[in-house]
Amino acid sequence: MFWGGERLKDELGDLIDDYHVTRIDRAAYRLRVGGEVYVSPTGEPNDPRNKPKRPLGEGESFTIPAGQFGFILTEERIRVPQHAIAFISIRATYKFRGLVNVSGFHVDPHYEGKLLFSVFNAGPGAVHLSRGEECFLIWYASLDRPSVLQKKMGFEVIPSDLLGPLATGVESFAGLKSKIDENDKKLSDRVTTVEREQAVMKWASALVIGAMITFGLKECSLSRPAAAPTAAVSSAVPSPSPTATPSPAASPSPAVTLAPALTPSPSPTPKTPSAAPPGQ
Ligand SMILES: Nc1ccn([C@H]2C[C@H](O)[C@@H](COP(=O)(O)OP(=O)(O)OP(=O)(O)O)O2)c(=O)n1
Question: Which intervals carry biased composition (Low complexity) (predicted)?
Fold first, then answer.
């Protein structure tokens, strides 16, 4: 049979250290967050929440990020008589935030020590807690026939060997999202840098090509006046042909200078048909 509030008032003074009647919650008793906690690391480097098992001062707070585990030692040392058994849970207020009790629900007969809650934050956001918060509940129930049992010694601290599997970090959706966001930012930074470099390269290439074109045009314009005097001098030589280009100034081309070879000679050669005697 479960113990009601009145029986709890009668008995808990001997069974729970630092008992206070105001913590009786109908047929249960509220247990508090104690002086030592451990929260599994998020796996994100340099995350200030990645801390080893740590002691908590009076009222000191801590957070359990979404998707992470926590070990929480109770403030109270409790005892369960040989003729009783106890049941433990997290208060609904904390369950609604996403906190789930992973570590079991009963306390053996003839148990003595603190309780160690292993909790998982299945909620969407971090759960904030602090030492002294009345976070857990305990119920007592009588056994039908008491038996003589050896005392079961409970926890006084969080055993370090429990932490090994969690110490490397627990991949949570929140942690993965944060890693994706971080990689996304790194990638977009890299793309921006590459785009900037490409723009600089484009401008540099355009400048070089422009300079080369300018230089080429300059070279061309410088080489032109050097050809002109040749033509002028050549055309200044009197052409034997009266049908040569009308004016030396009009055609400075060197082709004009070759004209004497192509134009009819002033003394016609006898080989030309026009010079042949008629009748031959
Ligand atoms: N959240 C919990 C659950 C249990 N306990 C304590 C009370 C129990 O009496 C004791 C042992 O619990 P179990 O019998 O469920 O665990 P094991 O069977 O693993 O331990 P053992 O081999 O010591 O019986 O641990 C606790 O401190 N915190």
Answer: 252-262
CB 130 within 8 A of CB 62: yes
Ranges of each domain in the chain = 5-170, 171-218
Q: In this structure, what token pair is assigned to residue 24?
A: 């009786």
What is the DSSP secondary structure assignment for residue 160, as one 8-state letter?
Answer: G
**What is the atom index within ligand 1 of the atom nearest the CA of 103?**
1
CA 114–ligand 1 middle distance (angstroms): 11
State pLDDT tens for residues 204-233. 999 999 999 999 999 888 887 655 555 544
What topology does CATH give the domain 5-170? Deoxyuridine 5'-Triphosphate Nucleotidohydrolase; Chain A (2.70.40)
Evaluate whether 49 touches 41 at the Cβ level (below 8 Å).
Answer: yes
| Closest CA to ligand 1's atom 27 | 115
User: What HEC string does 261-272 produce?
Assistant: HHCCCCCCCCCC
Residues contacting 228, CB < 8 A, separation 6+: 252
List ligand 1's pocket residues with C-beta within 6 A: 88, 103-104, 107-108, 111, 115-117, 152, 154-155
pTM tops 0.80, yes or no: no
